[in-house]
Q: What sequence folds into this?
């Protein structure tokens, strides 16, 4: 089997058919070395579809990662809905490549959020769609092309609305929070299906604002769960739900959201996640969860190898970092993760 076939088989509930466990990263795969190898540096790679495609494919091209992921930051959707973005151009000119961020929040009420009439051609949605087409033309069915998106809860609470006011509203004005979520859910589904129409193989919903470090399980169930469930049901390609942070108390609800797989980070135990997910859906696909900084970036290859072996033994279905690759990560460390997955993830015939 090739990379594409392995990843899609797991997402389609056919993991027993794969020859080995895939090694993926469903969020940012960009590193400084990959930027240098492909001459695709930030911020240009955020805005130029050809450079985005080259940088997104680099981890597969050079290290054998089983998927390709674009884009590389969490501000795409916020920008679509009117948030001004700082692409850190000044830092880049000095050789410092930083993630884009919001310049300021823009909405006090749901009615004040800007909803474009032509979402498919708004801001970077069009760039990502073109990058997907470029990648599918080059890689076809050789590697699964993934777009990661920031769902409404994280987009609202981290970028579009003032964070403190939004979090306070979850206690003081719950109808307002629901109106915010209801406002963004349909256009968010439209963005996702724009990528589906462009040919993307899978979409990852990266709800980084929703772990138990930030909100309670009860708040997740009230303000996040119903909208994720609606969004996932409305997307026309396989979906991964990825929440960085502590998620063991909400694993059951994450599974019930209806995604094809969930991805967790190093704050969770894969053994515990495996057990909790199986209580809802036996054999449900789990992705994770090597620490991207302290293991993949900083540890020697033998430690990476041991950690890969550990998560496979605990029941992971795709090996992955817990979040984005640390931007300074050497390529040989990513290669070590891929090689260890191939070594320990081979299925018995």
A:
């Amino acid at each position: 089997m090739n990379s594409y076939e392995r990843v899609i088989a797991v997402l389609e509930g056919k993991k027993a058919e794969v020859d080995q466990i895939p090694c993926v990263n469903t969020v940012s795969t960009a590193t400084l070395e990959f930027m240098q190898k492909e001459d695709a540096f930030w911020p240009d790679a955020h805005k130029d579809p050809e450079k985005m495609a080259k940088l997104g494919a680099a981890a597969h091209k050079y290290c054998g990662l089983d998927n390709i992921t674009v884009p590389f930051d969490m501000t795409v959707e916020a920008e679509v809905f009117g948030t001004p973005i700082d692409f850190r151009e000044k830092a880049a000119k000095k050789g410092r490549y930083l993630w884009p961020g919001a310049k300021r929040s823009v909405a006090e009420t749901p009615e004040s959020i800007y909803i474009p009439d032509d979402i498919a051609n708004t801001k970077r949605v069009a760039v990502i769609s073109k990058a997907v087409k470029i990648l599918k033309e080059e890689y076809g069915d050789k590697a699964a092309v993934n777009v990661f998106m920031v769902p409404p809860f994280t987009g609202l609470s981290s970028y579009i609305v003032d964070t403190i006011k939004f979090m306070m509203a979850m206690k003081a004005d719950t109808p307002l929070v629901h109106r915010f979520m209801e406002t963004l859910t349909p256009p968010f589904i439209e963005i996702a299906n724009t990528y589906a129409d462009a040919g993307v193989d899978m979409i990852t919903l990266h709800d980084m604002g929703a772990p138990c470090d930030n909100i309670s399980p009860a708040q997740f169930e009230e303000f996040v769960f119903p909208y994720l469930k609606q969004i996932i049901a409305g997307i026309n390609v396989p979906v991964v739900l990825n929440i960085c942070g502590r998620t063991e108390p909400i694993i059951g609800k994450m599974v019930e959201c209806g995604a094809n797989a969930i991805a967790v980070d190093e704050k969770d135990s894969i053994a515990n996640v495996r057990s909790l997910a199986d209580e809802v859906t036996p054999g449900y696909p789990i992705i994770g969860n090597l620490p991207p900084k302290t293991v993949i970036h900083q540890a020697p290859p033998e430690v990476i190898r041991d950690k890969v072996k550990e998560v496979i033994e605990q029941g992971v279905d795709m090996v992955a970092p817990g979040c984005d690759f640390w931007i300074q990560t050497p390529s040989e460390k990513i290669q070590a993760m891929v090689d260890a997955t191939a070594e320990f993830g081979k299925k018995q015939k």
Q: What stands out?
A: The chain has one domain: 3-344.
